[in-house]
Amino acid sequence: MINDLNKICTVKEDVDLKDYNTFRLESKCMAMVFPDNFEGLLETIEILKKHKTSYFVIGNGSNIILPEYYDGVIINLSNFNKYEIKDNILTADCGCMLNNLASKVTNLGYAGLDFATGIPGTIGGSIYGNAGCFGSSMSNIVESVTIFDGKKVKVLNNSDMKFGYRTSLLKDSKNKWIILSCTIKLSKGNKDELKALVLERTNKRIATQDLTHPSNGSMFRNPEGYAAGKLIDDLGLKGYKIGDAMVSNIHANFIINDGNATSEDIIKLVDKIKSEVKKNYNIDLVLEQEIIK
Ligand SMILES: Cc1cc2nc3c(=O)[nH]c(=O)nc-3n(C[C@H](O)[C@H](O)[C@H](O)COP(=O)(O)OP(=O)(O)OC[C@H]3O[C@@H](n4cnc5c(N)ncnc54)[C@H](O)[C@@H]3O)c2cc1C
């Protein structure tokens, strides 16, 4: 199979995944492939299906918990990285980094993506999970999403995507569709005002979030009417540790890797937090992240 894949695109075998996930977990996979274009992606998937090999698409690995070993192939679409702006419409490929793109368009004086300058995910991963903050999210600005459903390329409009709080049609159904690109509606704003807004928000993140340790950002969705971080903080769990996975001392909804945390440490800590919150408040916390098996 690897020989076949090698004919189509760059393939790395037995890959150390520490640099491919923001938790910086020690993890490996059988192989990672880097298709250059849609034809390469299509052929890659055909080969993987023919060999009945497990696979998934990775973005920036900032919303997944990787296992110690993934016995399959990870598809990396970082070569899908083109974007253009025409008449206030941004068209962006799935592998573009959301935070970089947000900074670029904001500096050009476009409003709409300014909320996202601190989100270290790709366009693909951020649409999949409807990433958001500061009162906005991808669902507010995405006009259309081009996906590959395993047979055909389709263009879905915003309502087809069934966006919800940190979710979308793709995340909910786990249908293995692949996001190829999207269009985003921007509007003309005032450059100086946008820069000041972004700076204010960046400073807020620096002051309130744990950005000095590897993490995946917020672990749990906020239950309706509550802030997950406050619930966890009120239980005195800041600093609570399992192995090297620790509830951040700065933001209780962040779990940080305080050295050499394993995915098992993180998952055990997630379970501990969930059970404490259930026992004390009768609230079922929902994990934002996806545990890859
Ligand atoms: C410091 C920090 C701050 C953060 N702040 C925020 C925040 O403010 N708001 C917020 O919402 N999130 C935040 N996050 C979490 C994370 O950055 C976002 O959820 C981000 O959108 C995930 O994108 P990704 O590319 O890393 O996805 P990944 O973690 O790589 O993947 C997530 C899921 O998306 C799927 N996926 C990825 N690309 C595609 C594709 N092309 N087609 C189909 N499926 C795909 C993957 O298979 C996986 O199931 C933060 C994380 C960190 C570390």
* Overall pLDDT metric: 96
Report the major sheet.
5 strands, antiparallel
Q: What is the name of the CATH architecture of the largest domain?
A: 2-Layer Sandwich
Q: Name the beta content range.
A: 25-35%
Count the DSSP helices.
Answer: 9
Broad structural category: alpha+beta
Q: How many domains in all?
A: 3
Widest sheet, order of strands: 6-7-13-11-12
CATH topology of the largest domain: Uridine Diphospho-n-acetylenolpyruvylglucosamine Reductase, domain 3
Q: What low-confidence regions span 5 or more consecutive residues with pLDDT below 50?
A: none
Q: Which ligands occur here?
A: flavin-adenine dinucleotide
Tell me the span between the first and last alpha carbons.
21 Å
Global Rg: 19 Å
Give a short overview:
This protein has 293 residues and is an alpha+beta fold.
Q: What this model shows, in words?
A:
With 293 residues, the chain is of the alpha+beta class. Helices cover 30% and strands 27% of the residues. It has 3 domains: 2-76, Uridine Diphospho-n-acetylenolpyruvylglucosamine Reductase, domain 2 (2-Layer Sandwich); 83-192, Uridine Diphospho-n-acetylenolpyruvylglucosamine Reductase, domain 3 (2-Layer Sandwich), CATH 3.30.465.10; 211-291, Uridine Diphospho-n-acetylenolpyruvylglucosamine Reductase, domain 1 (Alpha-Beta Complex). It has helices at residues 2-6, 38-50, 98-107, 123-128, 138-141, 169-173, 191-208, 228-234, 263-281; strands at 10-16, 28-34, 55-58, 64-65, 69-76, 83-86, 89-93, 110-111, 132-133, 136-137, 142-148, 153-157, 178-185, 187-188, 215-218, 241-242, 245-247, 254-257, 290-291. It has a 5-stranded antiparallel beta sheet with strand order 6-7-13-11-12.
